[in-house]
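hey team, just a heads up i'm posting the complex here instead of the shared drive bc the drive is being weird again. everything in one block, sequence lines first with there labels, then the predicted structure for the whole assembly after. its two chains so it's a bit long, scroll down
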Amino acid sequence: EAGVAQSPRYKIIEKRQSVAFWCNPISGHATLYWYQQILGQGPKLLIQFQNNGVVDDSQLPKDRFSAERLKGVDSTLKIQPAKLEDSAVYLCASSSRESYWGTEAFFGQGTRLTVV
Amino acid sequence: EDQVTQSPEALRLQEGESSSLNCSYTVSGLRGLFWYRQDPGKGPEFLFTLYSAGEEKEKERLKATLTKKESFLHITAPKPEDSATYLCAVRNTGFQKLVFGTGTRLLVSP
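-- predicted structure starts here --
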């Protein structure tokens, strides 16, 4: 079974530029997550999708970050304009349709963003 | 607000020296506690899911246990290849957000 695919793996941009990340979840997984992981910290949830809909984006800096999930499958996360503090690894994860008992999420390799 | 606290932040062991990692949590209705392993430059790799107090799961040298307030990841006779960051996460009721702790960096020396 193919895992979660992310691209690009690395990206270096100047502050105030824009950048986009792409994620293809595991086939059939209804839930998709974007996390931000700053060096030395645990992953911080930015946005969680259930199929096409957003179920949580309370920690997404909406003045500069945006995300969409196309037809309930692939997703893109965009930052515009980028700030130095956005330097981090951006992780995409997916899980199967949630039941009463939560299911595990599977992660991609992440995209390491450096803002200079 | 859901919170996950892991301790210690870092742990250095000699090969064969058993120890435990702690994950304390506060969540509005637990719908699963998850342990992940993360190697440098990689995404977290799923290890275990625990759902209710008293539950235990084992995999090779790792055993995870759960109480109503915390979970432990016991590492028996670790090897250098067990060196990694171990992350704990919880799911709550409602939208079942997956909230992570800051992790424990484990280094096992030969």
